Amino acid sequence: MQNTDIRKRIKAIRRWNGIFRIVGLLSTFVGLVLLFALMADLFTDGFPRLSYKFFASFPSRFPEEAGILSAWVGSCLVLLVTACAAIPLGVAAGVYLEEYARKNWLTDLIEINIANLAGVPSIVYGLLALGLFVYFFRFGESVLTGGLTLALLILPMVIMATREAIRAIPNSIREASYAVGATKWQTVKWHIIPYSTGGILTGIIIGLSRAIGETAPIITVGALTFIAFLPEPPISSDFPFISFKWLLDPFTVMPIQMFNWVSRPQKGFQLNAAAAGIVLMGMTLLMNGIAIYIRYKFRKKIKW
Amino acid sequence: MIKKLVLGIIALIIMASANVTRAEVKIVKIDGSSTVYPVTEAVAEEFQKAKKGAVNVTVGISGTGGGFKKFCRGETDISDASRPILAKEIEVCKQNGVEYIELPVAYDGLAVMVNPKNTWAASMTVAELKILWEPAAQGKITKWSQIRPNWPDKKINLFGAGTDSGTFDYFTEAITGKSKSSRGDFTASEDDNVLVQGIGGDMYSLGFFGLAYYEENTDKLKLVAIDDGKGPVAPSEKTVKDGSYQPLSRPIFIYVSRKSAEKPEIKEFIEFYLRSASKLVKQVKYISLPDAIYKKDLERFSKKETGSVFGGDARVGATIDDLFKEKPKM
Q1: In angstroms, rounded to a whole number, what is the distance separating the alpha carbons of residues A17 and A15?
Q2: What is the pLDDT at residue B311?
Q3: Does the ipTM exceed 0.90?
């Protein structure tokens, strides 16, 4: 009698297990199917447009002649500025908060603030940047402004990734370092940073791959739509060979170019938008791929 | 490994930009209406080709209002506008000492459109459109039968241009009599293709936007002829041009800063714009002005006649003759 009761219960529990398995599988598929549908849609429309000419041409009123040269170069340059600004600031802030700052109400407050900043809508960063970079510092509507705006946007992400990576390092490492007489800075330089590089880089790249798709803040700070020339090249044939004039040149980025094409009446522009979408998705996937590779590589190296 | 990667990316960027070497380059800065954008883009494209990189042109789309904000602060050389400059914008320009030359460059028809399966609404009067779109209609006029009793007793779904656009300003001015005054319960989008999809997929819908979008989507949309008291007129190149399609056809403009007009590259660009407009305007599916008007534009530009003919008044139904009937005033 008791035996059959137990069997019944086990059967019921097993059934729930099976049901959850199916629900879970379906949930996973929703995401996958959506992604594939999106990709299939983009590819059928945009793939025939992808050619060398598409990458090497400026925008045009004729959809067949229009390309994304100014857009992808603009995106790359803006991301370069973003990386140069966000990485040192974000990593330094993260290291300070984890290793140096005392744990008190002030650091708690900063911590809450950073977490909140990560959730602020991107257009708000655009408005802040418009006031700060465009009007106060007078950087104009330039690559520099665009890059710094996106740097603000991903700064919280970089700080959080840095802190998380540092927290994963066991305390025994720090203690061992102090035990042989190392200062805090030496510990950070020789142990903390090297061991957390994998996590930090992953965070940075994920931040950058979010930045590349942002449109709203970039439009707010005045990125343009029609640009049929490239910023000044960073290297020149005359002394001193390196030029920073490109920082102050006007620019456009991939999502803006796409947005403009999507809203045009001609069918040809819709195809261009799809093709630009494939390129943008390719860029994001590539960056995420690099992030995964780096994490794998660094994890293999660390032994403690 | 990472160092190599970073170096590789930098090298790629450098290579991409290194093959365009140029001397000091002059920039013509343009911003403003997304309606005028295709025309200006076409001119900018041809101009840059003709100048072989000696002058660069940038064109933004901040909307007519956003464009004037920048223009009146002296940040841009030329402003694209799908309606005449307004009194409050004139005021800001004055405060900052920005004088401007008003040049009409093309005509644009606003079309009222319905689903192709809509068999009843072949034409509507301006008064009917007013009943449908005025602010008092919000939540009250929701069925076709409320406009004309013999139309279906079905819910009407409305679509319209985004509220920041000059198109919206113009439509509301022309139909409800006051710029920006409209019911709020309609689907508004800056992206006209969203509106095309919306109307194309809904038998009981109605919307308004630029005529150029109709011509690309004749299978998804049907035009409604507009009756302004003189019988229904459907929008077309002919009826917009001869002024019989009223009140929803409008001239579109560029405004040139007087200070910028002194610069040789701006002067050259504007002259290029006005000379090539009649050909390029047609290519981007807008309606070009008669050649005589472009000549008058050139004259006004060379004489540097500043100010607006409209005096800050968002007048509707301006015909081609109105554009040069009066002297522009600041």
Answers
A1: 5
A2: 74
A3: no
